[in-house]
Design goal:
Layout: H1 3-15, E1 22-25, H2 29-38, E2 44-50, H3 62-68, E3 72-76, H4 90-97, H5 101-110, E4 114-116, H6 122-129, H7 138-145
Parallel strand pairs: 1-2, 2-3, 3-4
């Protein structure tokens, strides 16, 4: 991919009013830097990445880079395709809050990203909705960040 050409085309879309901003997907720090260098008129506003309690490697480099550069993180597959229940400590924390592991997982992710879970099941959608509107205490957040 020619980064300058691609970003230039995205800036043209913004100029024409066809999109409001420029976002990227699955960019690591190196590609984010290249994309930022390629911009002339608009910044990179979002990076959509795979991020869940089961897959947190991005917390070491990509997420801090995005936070330091004003780039929103959008987390896809935030429930790790059902593997959340396998995450150590999540059941205990969920029970202490009167929440489900899904709700705790989404709340954890919402601190540093915009998680976008997928569901067509009404009950699951209701469960997902209760992952926000409250906040994990620092102690539990840190506990989950270490698993």
């Amino acid at each position: 991919m020619n980064m300058k050409e691609t970003i230039g085309a995205m800036e043209e879309l913004v100029d024409k009013g066809l999109v409001r901003s420029i976002g990227v997907s699955n960019f690591g720090v190196d590609n984010l830097k290249k994309a930022m260098e390629a911009t002339k008129r608009y910044g990179i506003t979002a990076n959509e990445i795979k991020y869940s309690l089961a897959e947190k490697a991005c917390e070491k480099d990509v997420i801090p880079f995005c936070e330091n550069n004003g780039i929103d993180v959008i987390a896809y597959t935030p429930l790790a395709k059902g593997k959340i229940s396998e995450v150590e400590s999540i059941g205990e924390i969920a029970k202490a809050y009167g929440k489900t592991p899904v709700q705790v997982a989404l709340n954890y992710l919402a601190k540093r990203s915009l998680p976008i879970p997928k569901s067509s099941n009404k009950d699951h959608i209701r469960e997902i909705m209760h992952g926000v509107g409250w906040q994990l205490r620092k102690k539990e957040y840190e506990r989950l960040s270490r698993v």
